[in-house]
Write a structure and sequence with these properties.
Number of helices: 9
Helix content: 10-25%
Radius of gyration: 27 Å
Oligomer: single chain
Number of strands: 29
Strand content: 25-35%
CATH class of the largest domain: Mainly Beta
Structural class: alpha+beta
Shape: elongated
CATH superfamily of the largest domain: tricorn interacting facor f3 domain
Distance between the termini: 76 Å
Number of domains: 3
């Protein structure tokens, strides 16, 4: 390897690529692995942490920075007490929620460093230390979207994925669950216990997680050779095991249409997450209220399990492309119910979803990919979920069922355990369908709104004919096919009309006293008025 002639090289910051969010990406290094050792206690909310980070050097630099919350005026946050590089103490600086570590020795491209950070503090957020609905103390990681750095030194952005170990020391009344497989659970002196989980698959920090609570645990099944576990509060053990056991069904379905489940196990965990569900890789956290004993959580469970393929394994490289996670999980849930209940359920889902999109548009006309969003929580919108689902539904209709499924499989395979942007998905779908989809993605993803149509008919110039007129009322014209169910006194038929102009006219053979039903098969996101 080539020696570095000068140690104090400037830390290069490459300008943000156009269309990418403004997170300060580190193009000089790649995080390969995290070891998060965390000590919990029942006396205070203070944690004691030791993090080992393995980093591969991509470009020569003199430092590397990670996200870690500073201590605030209320005494919450993290305080770093020491940093070492390759077992030697090194200089560091922790300000403005960034921990910069200065390399003690010269480094070469492709070198692998081991950085160890010792710290402690009371988490501001990210690690929820509270009481559950039964009054028992619990600890739950809640990292999405970029809340991991409230208690973990890390690259708190989905672009840099790494394998992870959680080594949790806690009072022995707690069971600990985390990503991956458990490799140790040992009693310690002083009524303490150490639990070690290891996930060898690279993850984004948003889906790394551990939980510590009093748990009842049951194996729900091993579909596709994947152990599926239920971790619930013992007080609602029977109801929780019953509600969560349904998880084996969507796992089987998604495995059959997309590809092999990407993680060594699936744990469905009753928790204190602030969300209805949080798709931590192989270790999904659900709101504690999801356990009712009435079996009503199937849709939520199907949604979070779908994320294991899209969002967790294939991860958006940029926050503004989060529809690649949420839109996919939303639509795959509807496809799951289509597989169990038939096409009528899919139509019903898409009708109600369309109504939500149209209502949301009345107060927010932004596109699905809205780069003006700064607060990442604002990405959890109808645009990302329901409109994203509608884009997939229309794409399925555009390229056909067979090509759509082949495209999902190829997209999953090509970006397995990696990152993707919308153009990557579009390219895959173009490849499998042989279609140019630039206009489709432009109008549905990068442009706000949907067709706003006026539809009416008039007597044709020839006897026995009717002229159907379709007018686009919105500012930007869309290109799409509109299906119309035409009914008259003697017959009914469905026709498909290509629409690309402001006014589209079509002559059909029919009697004048006909009934027109737009989009009878629920394949288009639009609003219409029949005149």
């Amino acid at each position: 390897m080539r020696n570095v002639c000068c140690f104090f090289l400037l830390f290069l910051v490459i300008p943000v690529v156009s269309g990418i969010d403004k997170y300060p990406r580190n193009f000089n290094a790649d995080v390969l692995h995290y070891d998060f050792s965390i000590a919990l206690n029942d006396s205070t909310n203070r944690i004691v942490g030791k993090t080992l980070i393995k980093v591969k050097i991509l470009n020569i630099a003199d430092s590397i920075s990670f996200d870690l919350k500073n201590r605030n005026s209320e005494g919450k946050g993290m305080e770093v007490t020491g940093v070492s590089m390759n077992s030697k103490e090194t200089k560091w600086r922790h300000v403005n929620d960034r921990l910069t570590i200065y390399f003690r020795d010269a480094v070469n491209r492709n070198d692998t460093l081991e950085l160890v950070i010792n710290y402690n503090g009371i988490p501001v957020d990210g690690l929820i230390i509270s009481k559950n609905k039964f009054g028992n103390r619990v600890f739950f990681a809640d990292n999405w979207p970029d809340r991991a750095h409230n208690y973990l030194p890390c690259t708190d952005h989905p672009y840099d994925k790494a394998s992870v170990d959680f080594i949790i020391t806690a009072p022995d009344v707690y069971k600990v669950v985390a990503n991956g497989n458990m490799i140790e659970e040992s009693d310690l002196t002083g009524n303490m216990k150490i639990t070690h989980w290891r996930e060898s698959v690279p993850l984004a920090t948003k889906v790394m997680a551990f939980g510590a609570a009093r748990f009842a645990v049951q194996l729900s099944g091993t579909p596709e050779n994947v152990p599926v576990w239920s971790w619930v509060y013992p007080e609602n053990r029977s109801a929780g095991f019953s509600d969560y056991s349904v998880a084996v069904k969507p796992l089987i379905y998604y495995s059959s249409i997309i590809g092999k489940f990407p993680y060594p196990k699936l744990a469905n965990v009753q928790s204190k997450t602030i969300y209805g569900g949080l798709e931590n890789a192989g270790t999904i956290f659900y709101s504690e209220s999801s356990v009712t004993g009435s079996g009503t959580a199937e849709g939520l469970i199907a949604h979070e399990i779908a994320h294991q393929w899209f969002g967790d394994c294939v991860t958006e490289a940029d926050w503004h492309h989060v529809w690649l996670s949420e839109g996919f999980a939303t639509y795959l849930t509807s496809m799951y119910f289509e597989s169990t209940q038939g096409s009528g359920r899919l139509k019903s889902d898409m009708k109600s979803t369309r109504a939500r999109v149209l209502k949301y548009y009345e107060k927010n006309s932004k596109p699905v990919i809205d780069t003006t969003i700064v607060n990442l929580m604002d990405l959890l919108s109808v645009n990302s979920y329901q409109k994203g689902a509608w884009v997939l539904h229309m794409l399925r209709h555009e390229v056909g069922d067979k090509n759509f499924l082949i495209g999902l499989q190829l997209y999953y395979k090509r970006f397995y355990n990696s990152n993707a942007l919308t153009n990557d998905f579009m390219s895959v779908m173009e490849e499998v369908s042989g279609r140019n989809l630039e206009q489709f993605f432009k109008q549905w993803i990068y442009q706000g709104g949907q067709p706003e149509l006026r539809i009416w008919h008039e007597p044709g110039k020839k006897k026995g004919t009717v002229e159907v007129i379709i007018e686009q009322k919105q500012e930007h014209l869309f290109i799409f096919n509109l299906e119309l169910l035409i009914k008259d006194s003697s017959s009914e038929k469905t026709i498909s009309i290509p629409v690309k102009e402001k006014i589209t006219k079509t002559v059909i053979s029919s009697e004048n006293d006909l009934v027109i039903i737009p989009d009878p098969n629920v394949n288009l996101l639009f609003r219409f008025i029949l005149i």
